User: Fold this.
Amino acid sequence: MAKRNVNKWYRHGSWWRRLWFNRKYKDVLFRHLFREKQDLLALYNALNGSTYENPEELEVVTMEDVIFMKMKNDLSFIIGSHLNLYEHQSTWNPNMPLRGLLYFAQQFEGLVSARGDNIYGGGRIELPTPEYIVFYNGSGMHTDSRTLYLSDSYSAGHGSGCLECICKVININRGYNRELMEKCHRLWEYSELSAEVEGNIEKGMRREEAVHTAIDDCIERGILTDILLAERGVVMHMLLTHYDEKKHLKNTFEEGRKEGIEEGIEKGIEKGIEKGMRAGLEKGREDKLKELVQKKLSKGKTVSEIAEELEEEVSVIEQIISCRTTHCQD
Assistant:
C-alpha cells in the first residue's frame, strides 16, 4: 500500500496554508518536470537535433542516493548508443567534470557487472558513449553555454594526463538559449517559473510569498498549468527547499570564510610567539656558550679541549673566540 502524503503548514502573510508533500520526496523540481519519458525525450531531441518519437526507446538508469549532495538530482538514461547524464545546478561548481567522471565510472562498473563482461578477456567490451550536460540557472554565467574539462583540475593543466571528462553547461536563465527553449517548451516553462521566483525575491518578497506569487502568475499565463494546478503543494515544497538550500550554501561559505580568516590570524599569532620563543632560547644558549668558553680560556684550555668538553665543533669555538677578540656585534 502506498504511503499517504503528510501535510505541513507554512505561513503566508497573516494566514496559514496547508502544504502537502511526500516525506520521502527528494527530487528537485527540474527532475520532477522531466520524470516522464516523453518530456525527457523531447529535451534530448531539442539538445541533439534528433527526431526520436518512441519514449520506450529511452531507458532511464538514474542512480539514487550516491555520495554527492547534488547527484541525487540527476537524470541519467540510455538512448541509442549514448549514456546521458543530465544534471541541474543553481550554484556554480568547477568540479562538475570530476563528479561526472565518478558517476560514469559507477555506471560503467554496474553495466559491466550486470552483463557479466570479463574486463581481462581478449575481446573489447562495448560501452555506451557518455554525454554529460548540466542545466544551469544560477548567477554569474552570461553566455549560452560553457564547456568544463576535468584536465583543467590537473596540476599539469588543460589537455594533460590520460583521462578526460567533458561537461557542457547549458544556461537556462531567462533570455538565454532561445532556440533550445523554442524546441523544448517544458524547459522554457521551467525557466520562466524560476525567473519569476528570483524576480519576486529581488523585489523584497519573503521566499514563501515569492514562490506563491510566482506560481499564481505562471498559472495565469498558462505556464506549467498541468503541474501547478494538480501538484501545487508539491511544487511549493520543492521550490522552498531549493531556495533554503541555496541560502544554506551561501551561509556555509560565509561562515567558512570568516572561520578561515580567524583561524589564519590565530595561527599567525601562535607562529609569531613560537618564533620569538625559539629566538630567545637560541640567544640564551649562545650567551651561555660564550660564557663557558671564556672561563675555559682563562684556565689555559686549548680550542680543541674546549670543543671536546663542550661537545661543540672546533669551528664554532674558534668563531666565538674570534668575535671576542674583534668585538663582533650580535
